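[stage:ingest] chain + small molecule (beta-D-glucopyranose)
[stage:ingest] validated
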Amino acid sequence: MTSVNADVSATATAQKPIYQDESRPVEERVEDALLRLTLEEKVALCHAQSKFSTPGVARLGIPELWMSDGPHGVRAEISWNSWDYAGWTNDRITAFPALTALAATWNTDLAALYGKSVGEEARYRRKDVLLGPGVNIYRTPLNGRNFEYMGEDPFLAGEMVVPYIQELQKNGVAACVKHFALNNQEKWRGNVNVTLSDRALYEIYLPAFRRAVVDGKAWAVMGAYNKIWGGHCCHNSRLLNDILRGEWHFDGAVITDWGGAHDTREAALNGLDIEMGSFTNGLTSDSGSTYDEYYLASPYLRMLQSGEVSLSTVDAKARNILRLIFRTAMNTRKPFGSVASPEHYAAAKSIADESIVLLKNDGLLPLSPERYRRVLVVGENAVKMLNEGGGSSELKVKDMFSPLEALREVYDEVVYAPGYKSGRFAYDVEDVIPEEVQAELRREAVELAKDADAVIYIGGLNKNAFQDCESTDRYTYSLPFCQDELITELAAVNPNIVVANISGNAYAMPWLDRVPAVLQIWYLGTMIGPAIADVISGRVNPSGKLPFSFPRRLEDCGAHSFGAEAYPGVEGEAAGNAAADLEGADVNVGRDPQEVYAEDILVGYRWHDTKNVPAMFAFGHGLSYTCFAYGSARLSSDVLSDAGSITVSVPVTNTGSRAGKETVQLYLSELNAVVPRPAKELKGFVKLSLEPGETKEAVFTIGVDALKYFDAEAHAWIAQPGAFRALIGSASDDVRASADFVYK
Ligand code: BGC
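[stage:predict] done
[stage:export] tokens:
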């Protein structure tokens, strides 16, 4: 009996087609599957069959691919062919902190934990592709979508994105890194044509994507909506064929942003694999057009049949898509996943805890519950469901613990006053709240503040249109909804005020000198309340550092120093002129808005430091309830040669009375550069955990690559022999130790 059974199963294994045999190398399986596919089946793989899925090949048992936003949790189920939610009851999940928050932890272990946890949720929800993470660089505080990205520095974003992807993909769920590339604003995102130097492209805007692909080994990349060099990013030969595949050897699938494809021939030839969401604006509208009319559907099939484009184009796409399917949907070895588990809540809480940035503290914080018993909480964000709104990253949570709820558990007597009103969430539309309504809410809050032991202000931006929201940019750098007046008046009647603003962006703080304590909070998801309450009350010692600069004024930001041509771009006749001015640029003169990244490589702190324009709060800034003393820097050698590397180390001591974490940052500066270079650039960081009185060494290895700039003419990274300075500090504007070395 036993031997008969064994024979049967041996025969079954032997008969398994190669493409289904997971013990075979992936490339062998891809070629085997490709041989079995008809032309029609290959084309079908290349486009959507519903809002969030592509067909497999039913005849061969090759499964569909199911995708989901991304990137802060797994989005609720969307209807087959409309943007309406499907109304399922089993799609509630953990909302993890926004990626800005993750970046603010400067903790790569937490990035790994984030990827693992969100990957398990995606797997449980049977998703094959998670539409994230996003690594577009923070160029202007007006970009409505900065909260979905990891800040202004390519090194920081690159370090954080790699462990996220690696751990996510262990669940058999692909990361789809977005939005490739230069989707650095939402205004005119569908057609703004970006022009920039190759140097800025390679030094600032590409490195985090490169790390995601080369080191993270992401299985999918999403093209951006905007144009670059006159062509849409979703089928842009230079971006996708030359850079992504040619230089980085990407072997996964390129997926459009929803509605990001515009032309069959370009889509066929210029590196796109999967077309999603066409005939919509990516957010709200639908059309009667069927999936069969997609650029990469029937129109593509006809071109292939007539020989207008070569069959090798569809074979290349099918190979990339099959690889993606084998790694995800057809991977039978993946774990089962889990959702809204205690482990995921704990992960979300640790990330949230370490992300909160103490911007300013004149000694009021932590706000001891023994001393401050009667607390007034002011601000809509103390109660608002900030998991909702904001665009495609919106989440349907199982639980959301609000700040007000959490603060009530900590302080004896908590009174709440909204203080202002922001109106409904709606894409593209803003509720205008009459000034009298705001004045009345303000009056009520200020009255109550007079009798409170302390005021905890929880405001900031929100996910409404024209705030931190996809598809729109902010209008101004100021806080909305009359909050500046409100904070100023509250501070005038109660000096014990903690301002804890929630946002994914920097904003002006005209009241900064009048308040003793300021915390920067991000969209922290499910655990937002407990994280805020623990930091304010002192149960958690804050250790976040800013992943982007807070300029004093909008004009102090590089992108805003060159007028409309540099942001948001110019339309009409002006666009024609701007295009004509661009030497050698291949642009559609006059038609699309044109934008030139005139600040070039000087983005964020690179601008502030090089141009001597101090920021209000610098990149890398973040205080603690304890203090850290830095010793002198020691180099292993003051000569770095081509083949080698040197180390620089600095002892850091916790000189306060409580345990804390400090992110020690290494910046490099070239002393007599032959080409313009930023005053300094981040090249390393380490987060040390220190008990009171404890000393640890922060040790950084410096290799030649860290010295290089991108030489556009040679199309190569170059390190110029000469003198360099290693600057070690607590923030980009707070260097505590330095040491010089020579590169020979
Ligand atoms: C967004 C993407 C998102 C997609 C699907 C687009 O509007 O730009 O980031 O993944 O929609 O929801």
